[in-house]
Amino acid sequence: MTPVFTSLLETDLYKFSMWQAMLHRHPATQTQYRFLCRNQTAFPLAELASEVEREVEALCTLSFRPDELAYLRTLRYLSSDFIDFLRIFRFQRDFIRIGSDGPNLAISVDGPQVHVMAFEIFVLAIVNELYFRRVAGPDALVEGRQRLAAKIERLREFAAEPPRRHPFRFFDFGLRRRFSGAWHREVLATLKQELPEFFTGTSNVLLARELDLVPIGTMAHEYLQTFQGLGVRLRDHQKAALESWVQEYRGDLGTALTDVVGMDAFLSDFDLYFAKLFDGLRHDSGDPYVWGEKALAHYAKLRIDPASKRLVFSDALDIDRCLNLYRHFADRTQCGFGIGTHLTNDTGLRTLNIVMKLVSVNGQPVAKISDAPGKTMCDDPGFLAYLRQVFGMHSH
C-alpha cells in the first residue's frame, strides 16, 4: 500500500514560514506538541495506533527532492540558508511517540522545535485518511462530488450579483482535515477548472506547485504561542512575535493572526506601526462579524484606510458563510476566505475534530485563550489564569 505521504512538500505553507523564522531567531527552542480529538468518533481512535506508526515511519524516510527545493527557491520570502537546511532535513522517529490511552489515540512530539514543528500537519492528515478509509462506504465520493458540484453552482449564481468594491476570493485550507490525498487533489483541480475567477490558491504547497495555484499562508497559533515561553514579558509576547515576523519577512507574508489571546488583547498590541506594516488580519475564532467590525474600527481609529487592508476569514467556513461575510464587508475592505473541512471533507460523513497543539516551550506551559470558549487550549489551569490576568481578561 502506498503511504499517505510521499512528499515532504505536501504540508501547509505557514509551516515553512514559521519554520524559517524559528530557525533564524530561536533555533534552540525545546517544545512539546500533543494530539487531541475533540469529538465522538465512529470507533476508538486507539485502534489506528499501529497504522499511524507505520505511516510515520514511512514519513521519517522522506527528504526534500531537488525539484521540490527548486520550487521553494521560487518563493522570494524563503531564504537560501533555510532551503539548505531543508535539503538535509529528515524527521527523526525518536522525537514522536504514538500509542493509546484507553480508547484514545495518544500522540506526542517532544524535541527541538525546528525538528518537530512540521510533524503536525502530516500526523493530522494521516489520522484523517486512515479513519475515513475505515468509515467511508463506496459511495462517499459520489456524495462528495455532488456536494462539490452544488458549491460550484452556488458560486456561479453568486457571480451574477452586482460587483462590490473588492473581488470575492477563496482558497483551500483543508489539508489537515481532508478525506484523502486523492480527493484533495480532485477537489482543487475541479475548482481551478470551474471557478478560476474565485478560487485562487491553497495552503498545500505540493498541490499549489502541481496545479499552478498560489501557495497561501503566513502564521499559525503556535508561532505566537511560542513567544510565551521565550523569555520576553508575557504581556509583551504578541508584540515580540509580530516584531520578529516583520524583521524576518520585511513586508512579505503580511497577514497577522489575531486570536491567540482574543481580539481585544490583540488590538491593544496592534498599534500604528504594526497596523501599517501588516497587510491585514486573519480571523479564526469567535463571531466573525463582531471581529471584522472591531478590526475596521481599529483601522479607522488609526486613520488607516480599511480599503488598503485585508481581512482573511478562516473559521469553520462554508460557501454561504463566505458569501454573507463578503456581502457585509467587501465594499469597505479587501476580503479573503480560507475554507477547510467544507472543501476537502464534505462527503456526508461526520468529520473528526482533531488538533495537534503546542503545549509547552522550554519547559513552560503555553496557552491559547480563544474568543470561542471551546477552542481555548492549555494543560495548566494556573498558567491559564495567570495569562488571563496579565491581559486583564475575565475567566469564563
From TrEMBL:
InterPro entries membership: N/Namide_PRibTrfase, NAPRTase_N, Nic_PRibTrfase, Nic_PRibTrfase-Fam, Nicotinate_pribotase-like_C
Keyword set, alphabetical order: Glycosyltransferase, Ligase, Phosphoprotein, Pyridine nucleotide biosynthesis, Transferase
PTM per Swiss-Prot/TrEMBL: Transiently phosphorylated on a His residue during the reaction cycle. Phosphorylation strongly increases the affinity for substrates and increases the rate of nicotinate D-ribonucleotide production. Dephosphorylation regenerates the low-affinity form of the enzyme, leading to product release.
Biological processes annotated in GO: NAD+ biosynthetic process via the salvage pathway
One Pfam short name: NAPRTase
PTM annotation (Phosphohistidine): residues: 221
Name of the featured protein: Nicotinate phosphoribosyltransferase
Source organism of the structure: Rubrivivax gelatinosus (strain NBRC 100245 / IL144)
